[in-house]
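Sorry, explain these tokens?

___
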Amino acid sequence: MKSIELFAGIGGIALAAEWAGIETVAFCEREPFCQKVLQKNFPGVPIFDDVCTLNRQLLEEKGVIEPGGTVDIISGGFPCQPYSIAGKRKGKEDDRDLWPEMFRIIKELRPTWVVGENVANFANMELDRTLFDLESAGYKGQSFIIPACAVDAKHRRDRTFVVAYSDSVRRMEYERQPQAVQQSKQQELQRKESHESIMSKPAHGCHKTMADTDSAGLEGTNRSELESSDVARCRSMADTENQGDVRRHWIISNDDRSSGKRSHYRRGTETDDGGQRWTPEPDVGRVAHGVPNRVDRIKGLGNAVVPQQIFPIFKAIMEQEAARWQGHL
């Protein structure tokens, strides 16, 4: 299977796709540093720098696709700033909302699969619009919220993933039927009611939320204390006396101090052998001297998709495709 990745960043989605046996045949990424990372890790794969000008004609001219052809998957983590709780959350009113451009390319190329990624708050703001758009183009979509700690990461990092599928017959039927748009609107209303019902229920087995939505400058901030489970390997203690101050404590025993090894997390008092908690932050300067492209690296990592987080989706797509083709034999 072949894929085009939009808003590629440093290639987290492409790496996960490669693990699943999917070839990425083109990237779209405008940041020069990220382009260098992609060129290093995916040599020879063409990189386009503007999603607003990317279209079928350009892809055909560069030999990415055959004339009149397509790819199996279009994926992309479209910019999260319009939906992030750290921003103003203007959604589709934000000029950085680039989902319409991704959707335009989807309609031009008509891939079998679409995989989108965004922040968790995207599910509360623009998920319904995205699923409606996909349904209007003949796709059946489903959303998932997967935390990075579910794949043994040491941080929470909830992310919304949208997976959509359509075979060629279904797409052609939608193109011939104008009433499909009206049907999609009715389905949209039903899904929205169902989505609101699900979102109103507390999460099970992952975290307890202590919300502080009224604090100045912290609109929508969630302070989470993760449950003790295999999924939640990372744990935090919310300091409710200080806005936004989430302290991470590790207890280190006397025997481990010299080696610097971390022992298991223990909540509450000190260890029986007199061990002391690590301070919330090491007593060192924040500026790293002599690290080239430090800001670009941090930005790239901050915007990246954790490959292990999205890999199960690509694996499931490959398994589904294998089963579908076996059924045709």
Observations:
- The longest strand covers residues 140-147.
